[in-house]
């Protein structure tokens, strides 16, 4: 589904939270709204070397303890890399046709609310639309969302260095 991309080059370094205040892309946007599942882009932050995309996954409560454990396992399987049945985020720039797996960066949550964070390395010279593809194979969900080239550039321009990191 997605070409894997984990580590290797300078642009793959994670965001430097201590040295940068990221530029925000836009307000939260729903990716999927079903009767028993809601997924949205909660935050999209731009750094000079990439973008940190934070998704929230919500399910109605109450859920049995067994159902909570099963769902939590499915959600956090996004750390397993390409090929799992849980949530995946892919990306591409501009008119390119190949999707690349965003790097699973972190997660949190409990019961009916989970946060998933994905890192997308971006070459500082890229001035193109950032296209996202969210898929959850185990739930037959596939949703696209695009940030225009102007939105992407503007968010990166709003990122501010606080100080040089060690």
What would you say this structure looks like, in words?
This protein is mostly beta strands. It has one domain: Immunoglobulin-like (Sandwich), CATH 2.60.40. Helix content is 13%, strand content 42%. The strands form three sheets. Strands 2, 3, 4, 5, 8 and 9 form a six-stranded antiparallel sheet that branches. Strands 7-6-10-11 form a four-stranded antiparallel sheet. A two-stranded antiparallel sheet has the order 1-12. Strand 4 and strand 5 form a beta hairpin. The mean pLDDT is 85.
Strand content: 35-45%
Question: Would you list the SSEs in sequence order as H and E?
Answer: EEEEEHEEEEEEHE
Helix content: 10-25%
What is the CATH C-level name? Mainly Beta
Largest sheet: 6 strands, antiparallel
Any idea what the shape is?
globular
Mean pLDDT: 85
Key structural traits:
12 strands, 4-stranded antiparallel β-sheet, 166 residues, Immunoglobulin-like, 42% strand, mainly beta
Give the structure's gist in a few sentences.
The chain has 166 residues and is mainly beta. It has helices spanning 65-76, 149-158; strands at residues 20-21, 23-24, 29-33, 38-47, 50-58, 88-93, 100-101, 103-110, 113-121, 130-136, 141-147, 160-161.
Task: Outline the secondary-structure elements.
Elements: E1 20-21, E2 23-24, E3 29-33, E4 38-47, E5 50-58, H1 65-76, E6 88-93, E7 100-101, E8 103-110, E9 113-121, E10 130-136, E11 141-147, H2 149-158, E12 160-161
Antiparallel strand pairs: 1-12, 2-4, 3-4, 4-5, 5-9, 6-7, 6-10, 8-9, 10-11
